[in-house]
């Protein structure tokens, strides 16, 4: 998603099912390969993502998510601030006068 492109998911184990669900239904940036992995089905998904109406909508959403990711990781962004706070408070507390407990 940080690349700003839709994804085709084939969840197999661990957190892949959750990631796929979010990509396909919550964030609107992906399509799932179903249980019948056949060449024509995969080709259809690729065609839809690359050229279809669903694909166009997913591309738009993926670009929006990419913009949000860039903003969050830029200086002053929420993720950048959280990382800086983690480093300051947990990983390097002695550098800021906070004694390690």
UniProtKB/TrEMBL annotation:
GO molecular function, one term: UDP-glycosyltransferase activity
UniProt keyword annotation of Electron transport present: no
InterPro entries attached to this UniProt entry: UDP_glucos_trans
Keyword Ribosomal protein: no
UniProtKB keywords: Transferase
Family listed: Belongs to the UDP-glycosyltransferase family.
Protein name: UDP-glycosyltransferases domain-containing protein
Species this chain originates from: Triticum aestivum (Wheat)
